[in-house]
Write a structure and sequence with these properties.
The protein is of the alpha/beta class and 387 residues long. It has twelve helices and 24 strands. It has a six-stranded mixed sheet with strand order 3-1-6-7-11-10, sandwiched between helices. Strands 15-13-18-19-23-22 form a six-stranded mixed sheet, with helices on both faces. Strands 2-4-5 form a three-stranded mixed sheet, with helices on one face.
Amino acid sequence: MAKKVLILCGDYMEDYEVMVPFQALQAYGIAVDAVCPGKKAGEICRTAVQQGFPGYQTYSELRGHNFTLNATYDEIEVSGYDGLIIPGGRAPEYLAMDESVLSIVHKFFDSRKPIASICHGQLVLAAAGVVKGRKCTAYPTIKPALIAADSHWVEADTLSKCVADDNLITGVTYNGHPEYINLLVKALGGNITGSNKRILFLCGDFMEDYEVMVPFQSLQALGCIVDAVCPGKDAGEKCPTAIHDFEGDQTYSEKPGHHFTLTASFLGLDIASYDALVIPGGRAPEYLALNEEVIALVKHFINQGKPVASICHGQQILAAAGVLKGRKCTAYPAVKLDVVLAGATWLDPEPIDRCFTDGNLVTGAAWPGHPEFVSQLMALLGIKVSF
């Protein structure tokens, strides 16, 4: 039976903490409604990019993407949902004062439906009085509120820490999304098969923020081993990302995003050990396409018949590698010229969230298409989520 989950949103919720579970769950076949008090379907919530930097006593905050709501708050019926998600960021501090929000949380809790809350989202749980006697973790600064609410506080040894106690799932930060989302899928009755795969991400400075993190953590949450590499960089180093958004201008806007941590070194990489390749978009592909080692890597995956999934401007690399001739392919519309000159048949991404599979190649136009993009890659890899 199909599952349906509700996400409680608010302005300046953390960017990753809403979009990653929102799109990951849809990729797994779960319907997701995102709502915000006082707002309707089609309206936006502004998000925040929150991350720590060495030498500072707390995290910084920048403007994130604009998140589009897909349901109207005043029309929701809790009985129609199987689970609830509460993102972190700054939204929870005022959502925790909204009696209608607390009522929704109570209804999910009393019906023993799974509730997943991360980072500062636990302020809402504390205000709703549902953490009493429950094991619970959160971002460290939320500890006093959770202790005052009589929870059994679980100290976080890492920012990836997650805790499950009956129908309540709590996480410290978006670093823990893989376990956090996996726990929620299982709490919803999901069974994951075929996930014993190794997947490689080809990264670069100023790749698009969502286009690396959403598929990266979505695949990790399924149990896949996922590595991210960048030419000239080693495991543990970071790539700055770019937030590309659609804000009414003739082209997308760009803002600084999160810093993405690489998990493996490009030099000496055993590419034969990986089952699939993912190429994020953003601005990185235009210079990665000039790197001969990158071109050789892409040709290996294509020629071996292994799945390759590329989104947005990532197709600039495919075009430079000469692997698109005779293929059907889409991309961000501005990349159409590269695709056509490379000998591919252009597939119009209308609407912009369309994705297509041609043999071992999955292509998408932009990050709104992540649910299809990840789902189609899962199909090529034989990964299934069943309920």
